[in-house]
Amino acid sequence: MTGAAHLRQLSAWVRWEPDPDTAVAVLSAIAMIPLYYLSVHLTGWPGTATLFIQMVLLGVVFPVWWLVWHRKKTLADLGITRVHTAASIVAGIVLAILFYHKLLIWVSGPAVIPQLLVNACMFWEPFFVFGWLFLCFYRAFGIVPGILFTSLAFAAYHLGTYPAEGLVMLLIVGLLFGCIFCTTQNILILWPFSWTVSSGIGTAMGGMVFGWRDVAVSAIVLVISLAFIAYTAHAGPGHESGT
Predict the structure, then answer these.
(1) Percent of the chain beyond pLDDT 70?
(2) How much is the pTM?
(3) Where are the domains of the chain?
(4) Which residues have C-beta within 8 Å of that of residue 51, sequence separation ≥ 6?
């Protein structure tokens, strides 16, 4: 291997190429901390409004607007791509099967169904954490710092809603899923299968066991989020180049 080839290989793991996307990703990760806290702890319409801002506007609309509409990139830069689709889906299903038995430790009986459905609708989280934050950090700093910074951000916005030991577990989960997502950089390796089950476990561990009303609210959030992505794919500045 030549010196130049070795440097190129090394730069995939660690590099220093921050750009405006990096700064904006960091700011959005910081903004998620109070929004997530308020969306969990507020009740009534303030809680619902904060939930919408957190999940839809910051979690999905802003990253898509910034990269595709403002920066003129494509949805592939957010992990929405046709590349490695089959492998990502198969891997996601296998991971979901492996995780499912642990979910039954925390939630059992009929309550499992709404728990799974709510978490299946939480597309915003793997999209925001890995499609947005990880890919921005990866392009700026390489694989290793990208995974580390992403897992730290993932644990950080759960401050105040999880105990200390829960935050450590989330940090580990972030590292694990960062490694998994990095293999294909296709959001389908996480959502909808593996993330649905693993998030179902995580939310139950955090004391959040969902009912059918939560399913309805989460479904609305999912529909709005996917509709904006679909519109962007159809009419956005990079739609002609495909994903």
Answers:
(1) 93
(2) 0.94
(3) 19-237
(4) 39, 217, 221
